């Protein structure tokens, strides 16, 4: 009897499948004219040297395995940030780096702590790796209260600025969390730090249990290349490398290493691009406030906005029908908001025009 399914009871293998509820990435709509402000990508191209590095790449070079240590990229990062190569770990986007960090450092019976409103990948990794966790509620203004992290735990992780709120926790408060958590690893996820925040990198000398994670996806316009990195004490970095080499030696492709190195070497272009985005963001704050939107003050390349009268879901759907994509999250508290990535000035003007017309027509 070919083609017929065995009865359900016989399929014992099903019981041994690892079942998880996956992270849901933002939509990547294809084709047509659209404005994409939904996944915090950078609207500007990567540094010119990146295209040049890729042009120089000969297909024959792909024959060999890449350098498992991605040394050229690590060296460029070490020079750019004034650190030793032993203090740097690189991976396939900061998601890969964060996943490795969870697997390496969060290995206790005690719960790992992170905010209740935060990057929704944290609980997914915790579930996948069987790590107990507890969330600490943000206050009414979406701020992290460092005192919430002053209790027994198996590790701490939070983004700074936080996502999807954009709120930046001043460095002295980050240090406050570190001061009260000397016996566990504290991960500061700085995916959005370059848009105006102050990195916890300066605290590395004093806290050997601190891991700072950053990415090429936002400020360096290279989400498609998948490069992330972490700064930490040589002990932390070595521990992460041991886990990585126990899982996949060749995480960084040759194109990623070469393109990443070229991007890091062009600090001037980096500063210019980040400057343009922060200027557009500050203007967006004024324009959106004038339309009746409120938002926590963002230090990231996105704004977490809510309208005085119109529900977020309605606006999300209207914008989508108008081919303007922003991010809408279901879930308590966040469902009242839209997360809008800062695009070019032209893209933002189209957003304002759409919203102004929509809100006027609805009155
Ligand atoms: N951390 C935070 C807070 C993010 O919002 C993102 C983007 N989804 C990441 C990490 C991962 O970004 P990437 O893997 O592209 O570096």
- CATH arch. level architecture of the largest domain: 3-Layer(aba) Sandwich
Number of domains: 2
Q: Which percent range describes the beta-strand content?
A: 5-15%
* Number of E-state strands: 12
What is the CATH C level class of the largest domain, in words?
Alpha Beta
Regions with little confidence, pLDDT below 50 for 5+ residues: none
Ligands and ions found: 4'-deoxy-4'-aminopyridoxal-5'-phosphate
The CATH topology name of the largest domain reads: Aspartate Aminotransferase, domain 2
Task: Give the helix/strand layout.
Blueprint: E1 35-37, H1 48-56, H2 71-81, E2 88-91, H3 93-105, E3 112-115, H4 121-129, E4 133-136, E5 155-159, H5 171-179, E6 186-189, E7 210-215, E8 228-231, H6 234-245, H7 254-265, H8 267-290, E9 293-294, E10 302-307, H9 312-321, E11 324-328, E12 338-341, H10 345-362
Parallel strand pairs: 1-11, 3-4, 3-5, 5-6, 6-7
Antiparallel strand pairs: 2-8, 7-8, 9-10, 10-12, 11-12
Helix pairs in contact: 1-7, 2-7, 3-4, 3-6
Bound molecules: 4'-deoxy-4'-aminopyridoxal-5'-phosphate.
4'-deoxy-4'-aminopyridoxal-5'-phosphate is lined by residues 93-95, 119, 159, 163, 189, 191, 215, 217, 223, 228.
Describe the structure.
The protein is 35% helix and 14% strand. It has 363 residues and is α/β, with parallel strands linked by helices. The protein folds into two domains: 27-45 and 268-362, Alpha-Beta Complex (Aspartate Aminotransferase, domain 1); 48-265, Type I PLP-dependent aspartate aminotransferase-like (Major domain) (Aspartate Aminotransferase, domain 2, 3-Layer(aba) Sandwich), CATH 3.40.640.10. The strands form two sheets. It has a seven-stranded mixed β-sheet with strand order 2-8-7-6-5-3-4, with helices on both faces. Strands 1-11-12-10-9 form a five-stranded mixed β-sheet, with helices on both faces. 4'-deoxy-4'-aminopyridoxal-5'-phosphate is lined by residues 93-95, 119, 159, 163, 189, 191, 215, 217, 223, 228.
